[in-house]
Amino acid sequence: xxxxxxxxxxxxxxxxxxxxxxxxxxxxxxxxxxxxxxxxxxxxxxxxxxxxxxxxxxxxxxxxxxxxxxxxxxxxxxxxxxxxxxxxxxxxxxxxxxxxxxxxxxxxxxxxxxxxxxxxxxxxxxxxxxxxxxxxxxxxxxxxxxxxxxxxxxxxxxxxxxxxxxxxxxxxxxxxxxxxxxxxxxxxxxxxxxxxxxxxxxxxxxxxxxxxxxxxxxxxxxxxxxxxxxxxxxxxxxxxxxxxxxxxxxxxxxxxx
Amino acid sequence: xxxxxxxxxxxxxxxxxxxxxxxxxxxxxxxxxxxxxxxxxxxxxxxxxxxxxxxxxxxxxxxxxxxxxxxxxxxxxxxxxxxxxxxxxxxxxxxxxxxxxxxxxxxxxxxxxxxxxxxxxxxxxxxxxxxxxxxxxxxxxxxxxxxxxxxxxxxxxxxxxxxxxxxxxxxxxxxxxxxxxxxxxxxxxxxxxxxxxxxxxxxxxxxxxxxxxxxxxxxxxxxxxxxxxxxxxxxxxxxxxxxxxxxxxxxxxxxxxxxxxxxxxxxxxxxxxxxxxxxxxxxxxxxxxxxxxxxxxxxxxxxxxxxxxxxxxxxxxxxxxxxxxxxxxxxxxxxxxxxxxxxxxxxxxxxxxxxxxxxxxxxxxxxxxxxxxxxxxxxxxxxxxxx
Amino acid sequence: xxxxxxxxxxxxxxxxxxxxxxxxxxxxxxxxxxxxxxxxxxxxxxxxxxxxxxxxxxxxxxxxxxxxxxxxxxxxxxxxxxxxxxxxxxxxxxxxxxxxxxxxxxxxxxxxxxxxxxxxxxxxxxxxxxxxxxxxxxxxxxxxxxxxxxxxxxxxxxxxxxxxxxxxxxxxxxxxxxxxxxxxxxxxxxxxxxxxxxxxxxxxxxxxxxxxxxxxxxxxxxxxxxxxxxxxxxxxxxxxxxxxxxxxxxxxxxxxxxxxxxxxxxxxxxxxxxxxxxxxxxxxxxxxxxxxxxxxxxxxxxxxxxxxxxxxxxxxxxxxxxxxxxxxxxxxxxxxxxxxxxxxxxxxxxxxxxxxxxxxxxxxxxxxxxxxxxxxxxxxxxxxxxxxxxxxxxxxxxxxxxxxxxxxxxxxxx
Amino acid sequence: xxxxxxxxxxxxxxxxxxxxxxxxxxxxxxxxxxxxxxxxxxxxxxxxxxxxxxxxxxxxxxxxxxxxxxxxxxxxxxxxxxxxxxxxxxxxxxxxxxxxxxxxxxxxxxxxxxxxxxxxxxxxxxxxxxxxxxxxxxxxxxxxxxxxxxxxxxxxxxxxxxxxxxxxxxxxxxxxxxxxxxxxxxxxxxxxxxxxxxxxxxxxxxxxxxxxxxxxxxxxxxxxxxxxxxxxxxxxxxxxxxxxxxxxxxxxxxxxxxxxxxxxxxxxxxxxxxxxxxxxxxxxxxxxxxxxxxx
Lengths: 257, 387, 414, 295
Description:
The complex is a heterotetramer.
Chain B: H1 25-50, H2 53-78, H3 86-106, H4 113-119, H5 134-158, H6 164-183, H7 185-188, E1 199-200, E2 203-204, H8 208-234, H9 236-246, H10 248-253, H11 258-284, H12 294-307, H13 313-332, H14 337-351, H15 355-368
Antiparallel strand pairs in B: 1-2
Chain C: H1 2-23, E1 46-53, H2 60-79, E2 87-94, H3 99-111, E3 118-120, H4 124-137, E4 141-143, E5 156-158, H5 163-176, E6 181-187, H6 190-205, E7 209-216, H7 224-233, E8 237-241, H8 245-256, E9 266-268, H9 273-279, H10 281-284, E10 288-291, H11 300-313, H12 321-340, H13 345-352, E11 356-359, E12 362-367, E13 372-374, E14 378-382, E15 388-393
Parallel strand pairs in C: 1-2, 1-3, 3-4, 4-5, 6-7, 6-8, 8-9, 9-10
Antiparallel strand pairs in C: 10-14, 11-12, 12-13, 14-15
Helix pairs in contact in C: 2-12, 3-4, 5-6, 12-13
Chain D: H1 2-28, H2 39-56, H3 60-85, H4 94-116, E1 132-135, E2 139-142, H5 143-165, H6 167-177, H7 179-184, H8 189-211, H9 223-236, H10 241-261, H11 264-281
Helix pairs in contact in D: 1-5, 1-8, 1-9, 1-10, 2-3, 2-8, 3-8, 5-6, 5-8, 6-8, 9-10, 10-11
Protein name (chain B): Urea ABC transporter permease subunit UrtC
GO cellular component, one term (chain B): plasma membrane
Organism (chain B): Micromonospora radicis
C-alpha cells in the first residue's frame, strides 16, 4: 500500500434536470486520506453530487481527482481512474457468490483471455478483502442470502479489490444495527489509511464518531464546512435542521431529490 | 431514486437463479461428463435405432431449433437480453448455406432455377457469386450473422438500449428482414424462399443414408455448442454476464463496459443461430422468410422459457420438447395447437419462470435436505438503476 | 479442464467417424436417382388420402373452405361405393400457414400414413415447399388453386387455372372493352409478381400501357399511398393480384378515394365469393373478377354441388372457384384410379390423359402432358347480393399452357 | 403537387391510425412498463364488437356510434381481467409480460377463430364515411380518414384532460412518477394500475372500431398492428403523451413519403432504419419524463 493518496477537488459544480437545479455551484476540497461526511436535509443534492462525480449525470464545472479531470468521462472510465461508489440500496450481485462478486470487482483490467477462462482458486487481493470485510467464512455463499450489513461490507470490499483511491459511500450504515455500525466505522478508518473516503450519511451518531471533516449541503449549495464541532456550532446549520431533527438511528424513509 | 425500502420478501426476483456447483468441482465435473456421454449415446445410438427415417429427420430439425435455443439461453437467461429477432440470424445462416447449395445443384456457370423463372436475370447477381465457393459460404453461415449482430449490438448496447426497447427493436429487425427478402423475389426467391435443394456437398439429400449423415452432423455440432456454452457460462466471463444482467450500472461502476460484455453473448448467440439455420437447410431442404419473421423468432424463445432460460440444458430440452409437442399435437388435434402453445407461454412464464429446470432443482434440493442456501430463496433484484 | 477437453475431442471424433462411415454408403448426386417411392397402403378395405391445408395461421381463412369441399367430395364418393371398391379414408394435417410445416406434413402423410394421394396446398410457396417431397417419394399431389404457371411436376396435378386460363382471358376481356391503360396492384409474393410480368408482356404486344405497378407486403392493410398513386395515374382499369386481408383494406380505400367500378374498374384474380363476403358488397359491387367458376355458373352439376355444399356446411356458405377445383380434383383422381385399375402412382399418371369430368364449372379434361386441366375462363361482376355473375366466358375450355409457349408475346418469360 | 398534398394527408391519416393503436400502449407500456402483446387482440375485440353490434343495430351510422363506448368497455374489461389474472404477478419482470401476453394473444386469436370463424367478417360503414370531400385543385380527402383523425384527436384530448384534471388522472400520474412515494402517500396503487389498464385497453377497443372503416376484421388483424404501435411508443418516449403524438404523425408522414418515392416494402425498412438511427441519438425516446430513476 505505497500508492500515493489523492484528494478530490470540486469547483463550481452544477447539475440540473429539466430546469430544476439540484446542485448549484458547489465547490469543495477533500484532502487525501480524509473521511469526509456529506450531510444535509432531503433535497440538498448530496446524492446528485456523487452521481456527478461518478459520471452518472451530466454536470458542468470541474471535478478533479488528483490531477485528472473527471467530468465528461464515461462511467466506466472514471471507475478505472480509481473512483468507486456504493448506492443507497445495496447493489451486490445477489445471484453470484461473495467470492464471485469480489472476483468480478477485481477484474476490470483483465484481458479477454483471462475472462474466458475459469477462475482457479482465490486471487490474492480478493482473499485480502475477504479478511478485511470479515466475510472470509462466507465466500461461497450467494450474496443475496447475506444480511443487510454484510451486503454493505461486501460492497465496500468490492471497492477495495477494485483498488479505488476514492470511495464515495451513499448511506452505508442505513438500516444497520449498532454493532454493525461500529464495525462499519472501523472498516472505514482502516480503509482511509491509504484511500480518500466520502460518506453521505444521515446518522448523526455515526457521523460524530467517525467523521474527520463534514460538509453541509443545502438546496444544492455548500452551507457549512469544517470539523464536526465547527459544523455543529454553525447557526445556519442549526436553522436548516430546525424542524428536521435527524436522530441517530432513524433510517431515512423519504425520497431525496 | 427510491429510498423507500422495498420489502425483500415481496420483491420477487425476475430471473431464475444461476445454478451453483452443488459439491466439489471434481464431483461436478464427473456429473457433467456423465451427462454429456449420456446425451451423446442418446443422440448417436438410441435415436437412430428407435426412430424411423422420417422421425429422425424431424429430430434433426428439432435439434437445429435447439441450437438457436442454446444461444438464446446464453443471451437471455444469462445476459438478460431478450433476443426476439433470432430468426434473422437463423435466416442469414440458412440463406448463406442454401445459396451455396443451390449454386452447387445448378452446376458451375449455371443459375438457380428460380432466378430464371422469376428474375429473368441474364447472369448471377454479384452478391451471389462468392457463395459458389464453399470456402466462402461455409464460414459465412456463421460469420455473417455474427457480423450483423455485432453492428446492431454495438449500436444499441452502447446507447444503453435495453430491456423492452431491445426486445422490440430486435423484433422489428426480424420484420424488416422478412420484408426485404420478400421484396427481392428475383434474387431471393421471395416468399417461396430457396427450396428444392438436392445435394449437400456432392451427396444426394434424397438418399435416407445421407439424411442420416446430416442428422449426425447436426447432433455432433449441437453437442460441441453445448460444450462451448458450458465453458462460457462457467468462465469468469459467464459470471460477469450474470452480473451485467442483474446490475448493468453496477458493473459499469466496477470499470467494465457492459456493452462489450453483452455484445459478446449476443454475437455468440447470433453465430449459433446462423449455424442452426445453415444445418436446417440440408435437414429440411428449404429456407424461407416464413422461418425468420416475428412469429418464428418468438417461437424460438418459448422452448427456452419452458426448459429453463438460465440453465445449460434447459433450453435444449425445452426446444426439442416444444417442437415435438407441436408436431405430435397438430397431428392428432389440428387447430388446437394454438391454444396449447398460448397456454404453455402463459403458464410457464407467469408461474414457473425458472422453467422445467427449476422443478428439477426443487426436487434435488429436497433430497439435499436443504443444506446449502437454496437459490430458490426469492432474492430481491439489485436496483442499481434506482441509484 | 483436461476432462473437458477430452470430451470435446470425443464429440468431434464421434461426429467425424459417424459421418464418414455413413457417407461412404450414401449416394452421390451424380448417381442415378435410385430412391424408390413409398407405395400407398391399400391392403385393407379402405384407401387413405391426405388432406393438407392450413387450419391455423393467416391462410386458414381460405384453406378451410377447400378442406370442406374436399371432405364433401370424399363423402359423396364413399356414399356411391368408394374407389375400386374401397372406402376413401381422409387423413387431415394442418399446414399452419407455414411452408416448412407443409413439407414436414407432406412427408408424414406419404411415409407414415402411406396415403394414395394428397389434396391441398394453397399458396405457391407451400406448393414449392412440398414439390420436392412429392418428387422424392414419387407420390401424388392434387393442387386446387389458380397459380402463376411456369411449373410442371410429374407428381402434381394442377386442377386450378394456370395463367392462360385466367389472367390472359381477363386481359382479353379488358382489351375487348377498350381498355388502353392498366395499373397493377399486387401483394408482394410470387404469384402477383409473375402475373404482372405476363400482364406487362401482354400489354406491350397489344398496345396497352402499364401506368404503374405497386406491391404491398402480404397482410398489409395500409393502402392510402397506393390508392393515391392509382388515382393520379388515371388508368382505364386496375389489375388486382392482392391476396387475402389486403383486399379488404384496398377496396375500402378505393371507394373512399371516390373511385368506382364505372370510373376505373378493378379486375381481381384472387377474390372469389368467400372474399366478397368478408370485404362487403358495399365496396365491391360492380367490380370484376376472372375465374373459371362462380356459384352462379349454370348447369345441373353445379346446382347439385352448391346444394350439397350448403346442406352440409350451411346455407350462408358460398362456393367458390378454389373450392370447386378441390372438389373436382377428388373426382378426377377417382376417375384416373378407376381407369388405371390400381392406386399405383405411375399407373394413375399414365391413365390421366384425356380423363373428363362433368364438373360444376362445366366439362373439364385432364391434359396428360402438362398434368393441368382444360377449363373454361369466365369473367364475372360482383352483384349487390354478394354473388358474382358471369359477364363473359371463353366459350370452349382452354387448353392449359403453363409456360405460355403458344403465345408469341410471352417468349421472354420462361 | 396535388399528389404531394394528397400524400401529405395520407401520411397524416396513417399517423392518426398509428396514434389510435399506440395511445393505449402509451399508457400501459409507457406508464406502467407492461409490454402487452395482446393489445392487438384488444383492437380485434373492438372490431368484432362493431360487427356484433351491427347484427343488432342495423343502421350503420348508429351502430358505429354505439360501438365506440361498448368497444371501450369490452376491451377495457378484457384488459382488467388480464391485469388481475396475470400481469399483476409480473410487474417486477416487465420483459416476461411480453411473453405471457403473447401467449394470451395466441389464445384470443384462436378464440376469435372458433367463435366468429376463420374468414374475415364485414361491417357496413355509414355511407357518409365511405365518401370523400373534394377540395379545390383536385385534392380529395376521404371521410373515413377524417373521422379517424378526429377520433384520434378526441382521444388524445380526452386522455390529456383526464390525466390532468380528474382525481384518477392525478393518481395515475403520481404512480407513474414515483410508485413508492405514491403508495406511502396513501394511493391504492393496485387499483390505479387496474384503472390505467382499463383505460389503455379500452382505447384499443376504440381503435378497433375505427379500423373497421379501413381494413379487414378478422382473427389476425391485431398481429399486423402491434409492432408498429410499439415502435411508436418506444420512439415517442415513455411517461408523456406528447412524444407518442409527434412520433405517430412523424412516422406516418415518413412512411407515406417513402412509399410514394419507392415501394411500401422499402418504406417499411426505411422506417425501421430511421428508428434505430433515432434511438442512437435519443435512446430513451423523444420525450422522457426526467426523473433521476432513469438517469
